[in-house]
Amino acid sequence: MAEGPFAPGSLVRVLDLPVKGHMRTPTYVRGHQGYVERLQGRFPDPEARAYGSSGLPPKALYLVRFRQKDLWPQYKGDAADTIAVDIFEHWLSPAGEGTGVRHGA
Amino acid sequence: MHDMGGMPAGPVERDEHDPSFAERRVDALMMLMMSPAVGLFNVDEMRRTIESLPPDIYQRHDYYERWLYTIERLLVEKGVLKQAEIDARVAELEKQGG
Amino acid sequence: MAHDRDHGDHHHPHPHQKDHPVRVWERRESAIRSLLIEKGFLSAEQIHRKIEEWDHKSFAQGARVVAHAWANPAYEARLLADANAATAELGIDTTGPKIVALKNTAKLHHLVVCTLCSCYPRMLLGLPPAWYKSAEYRSRAVSEPRQVLAEFGTMLPPDTELRVVDSTADCRYLVLPRRPAGTEGWDEAKLAHLVSRDSMIGVAPALPAGSLLPA
């Protein structure tokens, strides 16, 4: 299956879109950078389906991995701890090269 | 309100209660509403509706009560049932003491 | 825990004692259900069958999948690549959402949550426990996962990365817990007994080999 806009391992940033109404991108990842783990597939857009439309054409859904210490200032676990979230392609933009310490994809 | 990740909260209570019969009926109703056989609404419409519950109602009601409220709202929104007829039936059942 | 239904309706005053709160809610459910049946949108039989169907589902299916993966490395690889296809091999119907299996190792432990509602791999684990749907779990599993694990009595070995997975969209996640030590040569039925529901959510490891009563 074609990868869509983002290859696994690429660095992405979660947009903070001014969506009113239904969305499935949690607040706690908005504005943050993470790595694409994998493409989960293409699915009808839930934001459109929530209001009765078909949500087609399907949009690419990516599992994106973040470092916990990037998301939570008070995070008390291990520095290596991560969190992975399923995010639709239109919520992601490519993040610049060299914008932070990389960890293994 | 529903977008809860990272909100402050207390310890997780290890609530393992089996759903009551009424709760299982609501669960069945939810599944059927979304099923191809009945197909009255989809899961995203359900989520959108539960998310639009006023915060105080969201907090005050239990899980299955919120979903029942959601089903009711969607049925009325889609013109499947009228609010007045639901309320009338509730009043009838009240009078019967059921 | 209040059960009043607030639609802006007023409650009719009753001469006798106020209704037991649970009956108010149940009455509303009865009203809606009876109207839907009368108007032909569904039948009492359909509801009954659906309740029965879910009464009979438990985490046993998930435990079978995990035990089979433990016993068959090739199956485990297929499960990790395409869990819907792999679970279908065992006769499990997963024509619903995409299922993704997450393998725990010595270096990586997974914990599953749905912060936005309470999505759960129901076809494999049955109905989710009440705590999984609670505000406390949904809020803190992402931001304080190690503390939440500690509340379940789970401490991870040193140098283990904890990866929380928030099922925000169309995927449902099944954790493959690590196979307990001392289970070499066990048959799958016996292995399945060690696979707890909590281990497939990720709040606990699988049960230890010694936890089964001697035959």
Walkthrough of the structure:
The complex is a heterotrimer of chains A (105), B (98) and C (215). The longest helix of chain A is centred in the middle third of the chain and has 4 residues. Chain A is mainly β. Chain A is built from two helices and five strands; from the N terminus they run ββαβαββ. Chain A is globular, with a radius of gyration of 14 Å. Chain A is 8% helix and 32% strand. Chain B has a single domain, classed as Cyclin A, domain 1, CATH 1.10.472. In chain B, 59% of the residues lie in helices and 0% in strands. Chain B contains five helices and no strands. In chain B, helix 1 packs parallel to helix 4. Chain B is globular, with a radius of gyration of 15 Å. Chain B starts with 20 loop residues before the first helix and ends with a helix. Chain C is of the alpha/beta class. Helices cover 41% and strands 11% of the residues of chain C. Chain C has ten helices and four strands; from the N terminus they run H-H-H-H-H-E-E-H-H-H-E-E-H-H. A two-stranded parallel ribbon of chain C has the order 1-4. The longest helix of chain C is centred in the first third of the chain and has 18 residues. The N terminus of chain C is likely disordered. Strand 4 of chain A pairs parallel with strand 3 of chain C.
What topology emerges from the helices and strands here?
The complex is a heterotrimer of chains A (about 100), B (about 100) and C (about 220).
Chain A: E1 11-14, E2 33-43, H1 46-49, E3 59-67, H2 68-71, E4 82-88, E5 92-94
Antiparallel strand pairs in A: 1-2, 1-5, 2-3, 3-4
Chain B: H1 21-34, H2 43-51, H3 55-60, H4 63-77, H5 83-96
Chain C: H1 21-38, H2 44-55, H3 60-71, H4 73-81, H5 83-89, E1 98-103, E2 108-113, H6 122-125, H7 135-143, H8 145-151, E3 161-166, E4 171-176, H9 188-192, H10 197-201
Parallel strand pairs in C: 1-4, 2-3
Helix pairs in contact in C: 3-4, 4-5, 7-8
